[in-house]
Fold each of these.
Amino acid sequence: MSAVFDEKIHATLADTKLQLAIYTATGRLIEKRRKAITPDLCPDYQELRSHANDVKRHTIEHLDYYLEEFEAKVTAHGGTVVFCKDGEEVADFVLSLAKERRAQLIVKSKSMTTEEVDLNERLEHHQLEAVETDLGEYLIQLAHERPYHIVAPALHKTREQVADLLSAKLGVPREIIIEKQTMIARAVLREKFLAADIGISGANFLVADSGAVVLVENEGNARLTTSAPKIHIAIAGIEKLIPRAQDLAVFLKLLGRSATGQPLTVYTSFLSGPRRGGEIDGPDEFYVVLLDNGRTKVLADREKRESLYCIRCGACLNHCPVYRKIGGHSFPWVYSGPIGAILTPQFLGVNHEPGLPFASSLCGACAEVCPVKIDIPKILLELRSEVKKAEEREGSSRLERLAFRMWAWTMRHPRIYEMAGMAAASLAPSSDGRGWVKSLPSAMSPPPVRAWLSQRDLPPPPPKSFRQMWRER
Amino acid sequence: MSREHVLHKVRTALARSTGQPIEEPPPVRLRVPVVDLEDRIKSFCERVEALAGKAHRATSDSDARAYVAGVLAGRSAVASNAPILRESGVAALDGVVTGITDRLELRSLCENAACGITAADYALADTGSLVMLASPQEARMISLLPPMHIAIVARDRLLTGLDELLSILPYPAEQTSSMVLITGPSRTADIEQILVRGVHGPGEIHVVVI
Amino acid sequence: MAIRVSLFVTCIVDQLFPKVGLAVVDVLERLGFQVDFPERQTCCGQPAFNSGYREESRQVARHFLDVFADADYIVVPSGSCTSMVSHHFADIFESEPENLERARRLAPKVFEFSRFLLEVAGVEDVGARLNEVVTYHDSCHALRELQIKDGPRRLLANVRGLQVREMDAADECCGFGGTFSVKFAEVSGGMARAKIDSILRTGASAVVSVDSSCLMQLQGALSRAGLPVRTMHLAEVLASR
């Protein structure tokens, strides 16, 4: 892995307060999900997962068709679809629209896709104020940080840290009570909602047969973002499509339960265009930006295409023992956890962080909880193979490759294997047969052995191997 | 901007050609249970209360008016132009302003009102949700800006759940630019997972089933 | 005539925990099976496969197919090695139709030890006795790739004198993960220590699992922490008398 990755992991592990915050927060989310999918509350949970996987597979396999259907419907309802190949095009579109409309203030509801393309940074460069309105996102925006978790962006922040942040950035007296901190943010953001020229949202789902954007939230900021300003821009990856409004029966059931243990979040908005025919309020203009930014690359890979089924529930993060230790900021990109581990190499190339696919014990907890049944471990294994192929091409990791080649050769030659085993056993320090080995002289500790010993003891080699004992029966 | 570019990449990735027909999608999965009205009302009210909302079964229009007046306790309210609010007399209660059709005027009133009063097109019994479609009679802001929201729902609009809603309303986009499911008061747990209500949307919800 | 069972003892048991292998043989022979041990066996190829070295794992997997070509049943005291053969050989031999076919025909004959006892031998009680308080750790591959969860618990429930206490987070990964344990040693160690906390809360004096790699990870961490809790493979418990 890169030194940066190693260092971030180490720093997170060394921070006991942070460890507790991550562990507690994810633990709560695990428990909430578990309570929401018990057999009496959700008897058809496994069936729903299979069905969702089927629908996602079908949609992704026919994505061009659904993109065009979606576009036609949006247009028919008075909206405009804008296809963008990358983040720069997204920013260009927003900036030119803002310029045309003389917009100065933008409010944003939570959107990982806009984080993916650093939209806020790009907008700020052009003197446009873009304010995050989801409480967690607002806090991390103030702190100039990346989201810590797909669903709970400020998961890592304690109330003390929030108190410091608010007083430093807003100039308000330091307030430690969480309810009051929330009300401070509410007051600030309320003004922004009502003064904003443009509201930018993401989309949890794009519904092809309706030309609709579905937004799922608990606070109400997405509703305000998409209802108060005169212009609404929804920015979403092309993979967010589902075929029919009626498919929401399955997807909404899975999303809320998997993410926060809620059968439905407080607000579920189904938005299909600017206000129409006498409606009193709502935006006058409605845009849906459909973003590629590397999704077509993932799409082209049959084996890993299912990575695009993700509905961004965050369950894989919560259940991943590795995420629960290293946290969201150890990951090199906006998407963290198991889904981040498979998306990052596919979007940014395996060389971006070659250690990433290996930062997993392949325990499979992620695949077990994924509502759309993405086989994350399988994809991690594929990516590992790709990393090694890339290393071979570049001529790096020579020693490791040689070691595995020798290992494979040994394993194909049983007698060599046996002799190697005996040789290794004879080199090990003699023990009374019961004590585990706490340390070894450095001459006898190649890096893997040293790494093992840094955390735990080694088993002492037995006097005889199984096959020796078998022969002596 | 890059329409052809992106669509072309999608088709190439999938080895599909322009206009190529699609296979049948997996059939829609909707499971609508049969639940009688009384049970639906009970379940709905229980769910609303479990979400820290208040549910009231009105025995008559005057009972509904009395309940709303009690909740308002002299504070100001903006009511939507939904017929049921007029017919029940709720819209004519003291302190309630209604009949607004101008967006800016409505917003200004909502900003300052203590309460927003609306109808609901449907309610979902299994989740305790209100279903609201934006229309000339129902503006978005009334259920969103004021810190309290009171909704009047006709009992025959109480559906079993989302599956039933989508069965009878398969194309919400044909009816409205905005359909919202409201399930309880606004909330967040973004700081230390501690629950706080009324973050942006109303922190207090009352549903009157009429 | 006794049913012939071929033992794939796994390289880790062969070299580091041979008593586990002996325990497997003991239990099977007591149940009337004829155990053979194809001596040319070495490894299933998992270390290379998990490390991204598919070609190397393929070479070792081919050797496995040769060694066990004549087996009727193959019993494996490891969930991860079993799933390597029964699930992942298909990935390894994707582009080798002949070997893919051999792997497909072999897969139904490969059994993790506890599953063999329950489904082929048809027993839940092997007549074992062990006076001890133990807790059971669900090995990830066994649990999630092979759906092995209740089986070992049923077998343990019938061991006379044995008290089994469930730990919270029994199904959480111990942190071994093959080369993960050394590539991400700090994280791996942290995961092991979290697991040990769970174990200690049960008051058990031993942890039982169907995978020696998990047990090696846990015992290594227990030993480092100076804790007296020991680890036992399910086979060792079932061979106790």
Note: Chain C has a mean pLDDT of 97.
Amino acid sequence: MELKIIPKLFKNLFSEPMTVRFPHESIPIPDGYRGEHSYDIEKCISCGLCAKICPNKAIEMIEAPAEYKEKYPKNYPKIDLGKCCFCALCQDICPTGAIKLTKNFFLSTFDKSTTIKEPFLDNIKSGTE
Amino acid sequence: MNEQMALEPIGKNEYELFFGPAHPGSGNFSVKLKVDGERIISARADPGYLHRGFEKLMEYRLPIQNAVLSDRICIFEALNWNLIHAEAVDELMGIEIPERAKYIRVIMAELSRIQSHIIWYGVFSIGTGFDTGFKMAFGYRDYILDLFEMITGGRVYPTGYICPGGVRRDIPEGSEEKILGVLNKIDEMVKLEMMGNPALLSRVKDIGILKLSDAIRLGATGPVLRASGMKSDVRKNDPYEVYDRFDFEVPVSNEGDAYARYMIGIEEIKQSISIIKQALKELPDGDFVAKEFKKPKLNIKIPEGEVYVRNEISRGEAGMYMVSDGGTTPYRVKIRGPSFLHMIPVLEFLLRGSQIADVPAIYWSLNICPADLDR
């Protein structure tokens, strides 16, 4: 029994470890990973299907604040990542492809308010600047 | 022993000892043990710590949403529970499943079974103080999780990958080779001589012997029943999906002790590997989901009727009973988790008369999952 260990010991000594040293290297994320949502307000037609299919009711259709009300008169989805189970049903049901799940999984936070994805602020900023 | 532990004297040398529910070795489930010195006089299982009420939740959700919910009945074999739910809805709606979807379902269910058996091996090892086995098992399990991530988009939760009508997305190109590569690695793990470790053997051999007559009387299924000497497997006795097309064996052992139960698990990993290889060889082209379910819809009505489907999952026989009154959501869902009978009557029976030190070995040799007991 003891002698059997020795060749195995040498094999283990020179073989690669099973783990990856995470911040320095990581396992590549495959396509189709279900991470944080990306939302394109220009593609959105405000059908509300995403809010209806969401099993956790994480999506709420809200009105635009007063300053954007003229440009965006309908209701748009506000996503609560704290409630979200990342099932991608919203992505599957979306008729125009406005909601897509990205590969970003770095979603841990100490600030609860950052888990809520407002439909207007991010999109409008990137649209105008 | 820690003084804060609940030790109430009952008789002269009798004590009540709580195993769980937040004990690292019990997994959200507790057993109240009445002990006399080191010997257990009686054991009383105390479930309910993990109750989430899936049966009621499912009555308010559409089938496609229930598919997402069905993952969480038991996190260790989410895909198997997906499959059971999908089969129940398919049978109620009378949907014709494409051939390719059936094969993908079998491949994913078997991968999930291997992964669940590896967890079983891991927790069984750490329960008996064999850390190497635990680390090995969880290391190799990650290779399968990589496959799940590639195919379903999530490592642990497939979120309804096996949905009513087929599967939610096709397996990506080149995944056949990756699956075969992972299977070779699992094969390598199974061949390691961890099972012959004398330290492990001394703790699990001839412990918790369950005779065949007792196993049948107490309602054991799956590996527990097979380890007691009965050849019973839903995949053979009542084939679902395309299991009747594959050539595989049902491992049986006559000893009925903790070691035999756990060796059944190891044998089943080998059989599952052979099933996946056969399925990959025969994998046909075509659609991966029925036309009705290509895109999730909100207004699909489930025809009136009732159905009971049963599947063989890694822990035993699992079932789902579904009644529909013609609406979009099921009228009633009843889930039969295999762990229910393993965790209450079988566990109580086996613990009676054993030693405190054998509790983890007996507990984990039953391959139990508190999540599908409490659901």
Note: Chain B has a mean pLDDT of 84.
